[in-house]
């Protein structure tokens, strides 16, 4: 079962309210207070249904109603609450006591909803491009990484080749090592003999051993 109708619709006046009707309604509410709207038409003699009396008072006649353009702050509140509550205009109007739910609903449908859609469309057009993914960054940096890896590989290969060449010849071609070796040999009595890189074969004969010992004499 649904809610019973506010009136039987017989002899009920529709259309705009007259100033005389407004005065009767305001006088009655000032004396009895708002509420019990079903009794208002009966007690005042107005040929209006109870719903019409309630809406006339709430949206037009009650004190403190603010008319005129909505401020930016009010627009922000309406947009935020509409995203949370939907089209529950009476609940939204409770957060804006000086505005009626009817004014808020009309302002939303005629102006604010269109403005919001336009802003969202402009934001989608001028939105910054998404950041590149990790795979894209890896692909972009791949040539540099390959070049760097080839450089290290070539440097390592040259170092190994130089080391192998030094070992094969039994001496080092590094200038610092050569200088250090020369200084050491100058201070040693074996300098004349040790300059030869093949020292093992040199010390294998008796004559060479005698020459080494002669340096100490």
UniProtKB/TrEMBL annotation:
This is Myb-related protein 306. Residues 9-65, 66-116 form the HTH myb-type domain. GO terms for molecular function: DNA binding. The keyword Transcription applies. Coiled coil: none annotated. SUPFAM superfamilies: Homeodomain-like. Keywords: DNA-binding, Nucleus, Repeat, Transcription, Transcription regulation. It comes from Triticum urartu.
């Amino acid at each position: 079962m649904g809610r019973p109708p506010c009136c039987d619709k017989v002899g009920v006046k529709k259309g705009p309210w007259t100033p005389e009707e407004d005065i009767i309604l305001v006088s009655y509410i000032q004396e009895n207070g708002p509420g019990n709207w079903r009794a208002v038409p009966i007690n005042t003699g107005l040929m209006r249904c109870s719903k019409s009396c309630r809406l006339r008072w709430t949206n037009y006649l009650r004190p403190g109603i603010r008319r005129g353009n909505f401020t930016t702050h009010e627009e922000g509140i309406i947009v935020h609450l509409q995203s949370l509550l939907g089209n529950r205009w009476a609940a939204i109007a409770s957060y804006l006591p000086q505005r009626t739910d009817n004014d808020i609903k009309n302002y939303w449908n005629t102006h604010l909803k269109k403005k919001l859609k336009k802003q969202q469309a402009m934001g989608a057009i001028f939105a910054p491009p998404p950041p590149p993914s990790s795979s894209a960054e890896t692909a972009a940096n791949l040539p540099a990484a390959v070049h760097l890896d080839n450089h290290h590989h070539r440097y390592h290969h040259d170092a190994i080749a130089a080391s192998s060449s030094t070992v094969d010849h039994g001496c080092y071609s590094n200038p610092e090592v050569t200088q250090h070796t020369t200084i050491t040999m100058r201070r040693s009595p074996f300098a004349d003999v040790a300059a030869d890189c093949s020292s093992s074969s040199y010390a294998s004969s008796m004559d060479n051993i005698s020459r080494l010992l002669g340096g100490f004499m």
